[in-house]
Amino acid sequence: MGNLAVTLREVDGAEIISIMDNTVDFISTIKKRGIQNVRKWTRDRMGEEWVKKHFRLPFAEHGFSMLIRVFCNGKSHNILFDTGISPEGVVTNARRMGLNLTEVEAIVLSHGHYDHFGGLLKVIRTINKKDLPIIVHEDMFRIRGVANQDGTIRKYPEFPSENRMKPAKCIKTREPYLLADNTVLVTGEIPRKTDFEKGFPQQRVLVGDEWQPDPLVRDDRAIVVNIKRKGLLVISGCAHAGIINTTLYAQQITEVSRIHAIMGGFHLAGKEYEPRIDRTVKELERLKPELLVPSHCTGWRGIFAIAEAFPQAFVMNSVGNLYEFGNFMHTSKRFI
Which of 15, 42, 130, 307 could form a disulfide with 167 if both were Cys (CB 3.0 to 4.6 A apart)? Predict the structure, then answer.
């Protein structure tokens, strides 16, 4: 796996919408070009009349979902990355913002934790396409839990069976996987190279009748897009592999060194993970991203440290934020 390389096509541009995250902020200004909050872009694209009749503010939950649209040679592709924690949240937020999920061509799941797959079945039914690709890792189907301090195990909600996902179809892969005419990359399993990103030590997996340690969360993957003249856009769900390991692996397998943006969950919240914050910031300084959007499981301490270290690159994410990269096109008022 460590020697794999892929040919990830450059895209002319990309648009990312945060459909679900832990925070909402519809009031603060965003002083960075190409980023808008939901009030502005929904009105611009859907029109004042639609907004008056249909628009409702989206809401937040402890979950993650991003809609990814890439533009290349006059064509566009739409990928949904994760589906939040609640059964209805992602579909409800998409409807409130005027997003038509039926244009989604594939769903990618970052890993098999319930705050990332909770809305999967409702999303599949909403898209309603036969053989809709669901890009998964076989470990996502394992029964998992987390060890409490007293030694007991709190069992996690189970990942849906393949039968429940029909008419969609699962594509199981441990390796890097290309989508959307080779313009969107799912990293596959991420090698652990840093000495401070140590996975999820409390995670357990049920093997037979016994709960066993499973700290590596091998099914943790990220999405990578190569923006023409800018570099790599890396989007992580939770970065259980470590956001530095994730980004280094993206560089390795694409053979693109320049990092334009890193977005998503960095998993720096909680007493076991907060000691990683300083090292993470130092390594991010080496990578020199032009945009940093830590969210979801990064936690306020990690977000604050990143904001302080990268005042020009940092953006605080909100549900409904739209991020535009490179050159993009609008084929209609609607986003998709």
Answer: 130
